[in-house]
Design brief:
Strand 5, helix 5 and strand 6 form a beta-alpha-beta unit. The chain is globular and about 85 Å long. The protein folds into 4 domains: about 170 residues, NAD(P)-binding Rossmann-like Domain (Rossmann fold), CATH 3.40.50; about 80 residues, Orthogonal Bundle (6-phosphogluconate dehydrogenase C-terminal fold), CATH 1.10.3660; about 220 residues, Enolpyruvate transferase domain (UDP-n-acetylglucosamine1-carboxyvinyl-transferase, Chain); about 210 residues, UDP-n-acetylglucosamine1-carboxyvinyl-transferase, Chain (Alpha-beta prism). It is built from 25 helices and 32 strands. Helix content is about 40%, strand content about 20%. With about 725 residues, the protein is α/β, with parallel strands linked by helices. The structure holds nicotinamide-adenine-dinucleotide.
């Protein structure tokens, strides 16, 4: 691909020319823009090699054609492109909305042609025109492509490479989803900024207002300096989604107006708190590089041979299950619950927001500290909107139980992925208690709960071993008359039972059955959320296999339903000392001191497999360094995690010279003993955080260096993994 034609030499088009000229000097660029002056300037500045004075002339002979004109010009430009393009050329655009673009092209071609790849660079500025051209405009910025099922895969590849050449990160999205998301995140903010400035400029005193306007006004209205013609076109091109956004915002503004008029400080505070928490979350996500700016997140880890042991004392992030439950039980308790070590992840924040929506004052999270002003067992208020739970299945299932017992109706919704997850496994058994709960016809969210029912305790034999289902039933049981009991087919995490007891609520536990009697109350307490043993596991294995290591992991949760990794490592001969054991809010916690010890291969007892299921990727690393064979069976669930974890590990470990064979439900690993060293090499983590961290541990014991690709999700699961790993001595570097 060497011949590029650019139509529209403004900020977006001319920046592409500048970027390509900077990075691929052998490309030839032809340019066309509406005015002769612009075309001549582009030529004079070396942004294009040839200038043409019509669309028909510029596209002739081009391999790739980029359309970067204002949205209102697309239809006429498409018409000319379609009739004059070479049959093998690929066409793409940079328009800010995509529904209107595909409608325009389909109206000309009859359907969306295979050679057209709609695109949108999420980059730009309030400046416009050729003068604003910047060769680095797209570096580290996302470009969203919205190909149709009819789009040729080769055409998508050509367009992806074009943007990647300019330093962008390319992702794909459905057209509708693109327009919905952009309406809310870009178009609505521009409309609000334009309107605020307009409204103030109508005021007689506007010069005074502007003169004394503070930084907040400047920050909020920066984008009102954007090109009006462009934003008029975008407003019309994405009409439907923008109208929805404006209505939604107008509704909120009206509520805020009422609250201010009524002097309802509590409502105003809740609204601001919720917004602030969401904004903080947004910053942390973008800082960590997920979502909008995935590109800025390091996605490749390089680990070089470790020369001395892993040392020091660290505390890994808090447990997610416990973080969720501390908010829920804290909200229902009498008194103020303080939480330290709260895991500030997206899922737990969704729980925080849901309880704020039900009138609970929750301060934080701020550096892991959250204060929940409990409203008591019956103090929740009806939410004024649907309770949106993002991607958090735990929030949705556990809340279903709590809400089944409330006097008000509620509706639980989530993002696209949560909206596909099964909810009947919770709604059906709750119905047995007398709750009235509906899901969509295929058993997925939204979950609608028509409160006001009298719940009556009953016994449930659970069909699937699920801690979430068990928890939902026990939480509903707090509101039921008499006893609610649940028997599980296999042991699952028992955080709910333990934490209810920690909050002073009696729970009876006999064998595989747990039960509560409705009507008691919960008492606020302090919870120092234990560190997640699943996160600690990487360090337990690292220190066990690297000679000279001596590491202490403080305040780790050692709930018996989670400690499979400890038991398995101990069976392999690991030297792990459990010190300072104590109980926090019903949960057992200890400091774990781990020192290097030669490991031996074992047959992993099947009963321990469910208790260590998340830890197997790193246990495979331990097995490679153990003397003799390690056999893992009964772990077929590993094949349906974020990646097929058995295959991911087998592929990577073979590439690093280990002896491993995958089986349908596990693996056979012939360990090389204490002298074993992994070969240098590059492995794929398939964006599965646990695979990425497991291979980082393998890198410590390699002959040279191990490069791990696809580590982009590590930070969302284990914030600061890289920082803590380095603090203990991992020779780990990161790159994009
Ligand atoms: P711009 O105003 O800086 O440039 C547009 C250029 O197109 C101008 O040079 C203009 O003379 C030329 N033009 C107008 N009508 C034409 C026609 N019929 N034939 C040929 N040339 C014509 O605008 P821009 O910021 O570069 O935006 C271009 C496109 O990119 C728009 O569709 C916009 O929605 C999209 N976009 C803009 C941004 C941004 O932040 N500016 C970001 C992403 C996408």
């Amino acid at each position: 691909m060497k011949k590029l034609a650019v139509i529209g030499l403004g900020l977006i088009g001319a920046s592409c020319c500048a970027a390509v000229k900077k990075r691929a000097r052998d490309w030839k660029i032809s340019g066309y823009s509406r005015t002769e002056v612009t075309r001549q300037q582009a030529l004079a500045r070396g942004l294009i090699d040839h200038s043409f004075d019509s669309v028909a002339d510029v596209v002739r002979g081009a391999d790739l054609i980029l359309i970067a004109v204002p949205m209102g010009q697309f239809l006429s430009v498409f018409r000319d492109v379609e009739s004059a393009r070479d049959p093998n050329s690929v066409v793409t655009d940079a328009g800010s909305t995509k529904g209107s673009v595909v409608r325009d092209i389909a109206s000309i071609c009859g359907s969306i042609p295979s050679w057209f790849v709609p695109g949108h660079p999420i980059a730009g500025s309030e400046q416009s025109g050729l003068d604003a051209a910047n060769p680095d405009l797209y570096v580290d910025h996302q470009v969203i492509l919205t190909p149709d099922i009819t789009t040729a895969p080769d055409a998508v590849r050509v367009v992806s490479s074009f943007w990647e050449l300019q330093g962008s990160v390319v992702s794909q999205m459905d057209v509708k989803c693109h327009d919905e998301v952009l309406a809310l995140t870009s178009h609505l903010p521009h409309i609000l900024a334009f309107n605020l400035v307009h409204a103030l400029s109508d005021d007689d005193q506007h010069m005074e207002i502007f003169r004394y306007a503070a930084g907040g006004f400047r920050d909020f209205t920066r984008i009102a300096a954007s090109e009006p013609e462009m934003w008029r076109d975008i407003s019309l091109a994405n009409q439907e989604e923008i109208l929805k956004g404006i209505d939604r915002f107008a509704g909120r503004l009206k509520q805020m107006r009422d609250a201010v008029a009524l002097g309802d400080g509590a409502w105003i505070l809740r609204s601001f708190q919720r917004a602030r928490a969401a904004r903080t979350l947004f910053s942390s996500l973008t800082d960590r590089g997920t979502h909008l700016v995935m590109h800025s997140h390091p996605s490749v880890f390089t680990i070089t041979k470790m020369r001395q042991g892993i040392k020091g004392e660290i505390r890994v992030p808090g447990d997610k299950s416990i973080s969720h439950r501390s908010i829920m039980l804290g909200a229902l308790a009498d008194g103020v619950t303080t939480i330290d070590g709260f895991l500030e992840g997206e899922d737990a924040i969704a729980t925080v927001q849901a309880f704020r929506d039900m009138g609970v004052q929750i301060d934080g999270p701020h550096e892991g500290r959250v204060t929940v002003h409990g409203v008591g067992r019956d103090g929740l208020k009806p939410p004024s909107t649907d309770l949106y739970l993002g991607n958090s299945g735990t929030s949705m299932r556990l809340l279903s139980g709590i809400l089944a017992g409330q006097s008000f109706a509620s509706k639980l919704t989530g993002d696209t992925s949560l909206s596909r997850r099964p909810m009947r496994r919770v709604s059906d058994p709750l119905t047995g208690l007398g709750a009235v709960i509906t899901t969509s016809s295929d058993g997925t969210p939204p979950v609608k709960i028509s409160g006001g029912q009298r719940l009556t305790g009953c016994h449930t034999d659970m069909q699937v071993a699920s801690a979430q289902v068990k928890s939902a039933l026990l939480l509903a049981g707090l509101y039921a008359e008499g006893e609610t009991s649940v028997t599980e087919p296999a042991p699952t995490r028992d955080h709910t039972e333990r934490m209810l007891q920690g909050f002073g609520y009696p729970v009876k536990r006999e064998g595989s059955t747990a039960s509560v009697i409705g009507g008691s109350r919960l008492t606020a307490c302090h919870i120092d959320v234990p560190s997640d043993i699943s996160s600690a596991a990487f360090f337990l294995v690292a220190a066990s296999i690297v000679p000279g290591s001596d590491l202490t992991l403080s305040h780790v949760g050692i709930n018996p339903t989670r400690v499979g990794v400890l038991e398995i490592l101990k069976l392999m001969g690991a030297d792990i000392e459990v010190a300072n054991a104590r109980e926090i809010g019903g949960e057992p916690v200890a400091d774990l001191r781990v020192r290097y010890a030669p490991l031996r291969g074992i047959d992993v007892p099947r009963a321990m497999v469910p208790l260590a299921i998340d830890e197997f990727p790193v246990l495979f690393i331990a097995a490679c360094c153990a003397a003799g064979e390690t056999l893992v069976t009964g772990a077929e669930e590993l094949r349906v995690k974020e990646s097929d974890r058995i295959q991911s590990m087998v592929d990577g470990l073979k590439a690093l010279g280990a002896s491993i064979e995958g089986t349908p439900d596990g693996a056979v690993i012939r360990g090389g003993g204490p002298q074993f060293r992994f070969e240098s090499g590059t492995v794929e983590a398939y964006e599965d955080h646990r695979i990425a961290m497991a291979f980082s541990v393998a890198g410590l014991l390699c002959q040279g260096r191990v490069v791990v690709n696809g580590c982009v999700n590590v930070a969302t699961s284990f914030p600061n993994f890289v920082g803590l790993a380095r603090a203990t001595g991992f020779p780990l570097t990161v790159s994009l």
